[in-house]
Design brief:
mainly alpha; 132 residues; elongated
């Protein structure tokens, strides 16, 4: 039995035959299997990363929606905008310095105050910083 990420040898053989031998059967080497396994693992890793990002965004969107519903309840039933604002501030602290810097950089860039290369250099440096 093969690892779930490792393509079956028959499939690797088929791929190699398609490229190099125009559909004729070939012998699959260890290097061919290794490359196919690494490619499959890379693809799976990329998909897992994408899935995790999408799940995190969906979770955050749901949490934000629930917070806004609670705040609206305060405003609607209690006419208490101040409490709603306090609740929102307590549950959604201000963005971290890195996030604020990236946001400000985008605002400057969108006003055409810096050129593409300067923007990219600053953005990449900020993105390289740890989130804390």
């Amino acid at each position: 039995m093969t690892d779930p990420i490792t393509p079956p040898p028959e499939l690797v053989q088929e791929w190699i035959a398609e490229i190099w031998h125009e559909g004729t059967p070939v012998q699959v080497s260890l290097s061919d299997e290794h490359i196919a396994t690494r490619a499959a693992q890379w693809g799976a890793d990329q998909q897992l990363k994408l899935d995790a990002e999408q799940i995190e965004k969906a979770y955050q969107a749901g949490a934000d929606q629930e917070l806004e519903a609670c705040c609206e309840w305060f405003i609607r039933d209690w006419t208490d905008i101040e409490t709603a604002d306090k609740l929102r501030a307590a549950r959604r602290p201000p963005p971290r310095l890195k996030e604020r810097a990236l946001h400000e950089l985008a605002a400057v860039y969108n006003r055409d105050e810096i050129d593409d290369s300067a923007y990219d250099a600053i953005r990449l440096a900020l993105e390289a910083l740890p989130d804390d």
